[in-house]
Amino acid sequence: MASAEVIAKLETKAVAAEKLIELLRQQISQVKAAQAGQGNGGGAAFGQEIVQLREENSNLKSDVETWKAKLSAAEVTNGKKVFCAPIKSDENPKEVKAEATPVAATDKKEKKVKADKPEKAPKEKKEVKKEDDTPVDIGRLDLRVGHIRKASKHPDADSLYVEEIDLGEEKPRTVISGLVKFIPEEEMQDRMAIILCNLKPSKMRGIMSEAMVMCASTPEKVEIMAPPAGSKPGDLVQVDGYTRNPDAQLNPKKKIFEACAPDLKVNDTKQATYKGVLWTVNGQPVTSQTLVGVQIK
């Protein structure tokens, strides 16, 4: 690839040649004027000088065209636009001008193609259900009847049970509960319970817990909340006045369960309530065994 220095030298020589041609043209004009003034006496000498000057002019033109061709080749090699393309005597100058700037013409075509390219239609934004638009109440909690098929102590935690619970789904869920201190292992087997099903699963001592067993609770005593007789795994807990519209999974950052928890209580007749309204399954109340006036956790 030609260097910038070589291109600069070629440009300088081309300009010098153009100036020299112009000087020769002026000299020819002067000779013609002198010939006309002196008459026929000195015509032969002047004629000979004119022929000589024309020959030199032709040679210089040839040299100029050669240097222009070299300059053009160097400019093309360096990616520059061609400004000094050689002009043949039999070519129309206007046509040469059009050919001398193929890059510019190509650029215009490319810009036109880009301009004509149709813009992509903006994608329609899918409507996303905003959790913030839904009231924060017990309707956001997925409370269902579950059947604790079996329970055993956690291999790595003395205070925890690992339970297998049927919720009417394709397969049972694994649930970890801290009930060892309050409920004997034999009482954990084959019993019905109320389960909160849409908590975010979390590991407890290496085992993933997929739900939570709801209990009437005091510091000294804990009882599993019991659904009414005849309930089946998967039956829904309803609370009158609160539309059941549970989140697919509660977002821990939103603290929805924590907001509802203070109003989850057992009343004086051992019935589960939310803000004083009964929890029911198939129209019948959910109850504790003996505890009254306590929180449900």
Question: How would you characterize the overall build of this protein?
Answer:
The chain has 297 residues and is of the alpha+beta class. Helices cover 33% and strands 22% of the residues. It is built from five helices and 15 strands. The protein has helices at residues 4-38, 43-77, 93-99, 102-116, 256-260; strands spanning 143-154, 157-166, 173-177, 191-196, 202-204, 207-209, 212-213, 215-217, 222-224, 238-239, 264-266, 272-274, 277-281, 284-285, 295-296. The protein has a five-stranded antiparallel beta sheet, with no helix packed on it. Strands 10, 11, 12, 13 and 14 form a five-stranded antiparallel beta sheet that branches. It has a three-stranded antiparallel beta sheet with strand order 9-8-15, with no helix packed on it. α1 runs antiparallel to α2. Mean pLDDT is 82; it is low at 93-105.
Give the count of helical stretches. Answer: 5
**Uncertain spans:** 93-105
Radius of gyration: 49 Å
Largest sheet: 5 strands, antiparallel
Mean pLDDT equals: 82
Strand percentage: 15-25%
Task: Name the helicity range.
Answer: 25-40%
Number of strands: 15
Shape: rod-shaped
Our measurement of the CA-to-CA distance between the termini, rounded to an integer number of angstroms, reads 81 Å
What topology does this entry show?
Layout: H1 4-38, H2 43-77, H3 93-99, H4 102-116, E1 143-154, E2 157-166, E3 173-177, E4 191-196, E5 202-204, E6 207-209, E7 212-213, E8 215-217, E9 222-224, E10 238-239, H5 256-260, E11 264-266, E12 272-274, E13 277-281, E14 284-285, E15 295-296
Antiparallel strand pairs: 1-2, 1-4, 2-3, 4-7, 5-6, 8-9, 8-15, 10-13, 11-12, 12-13, 13-14
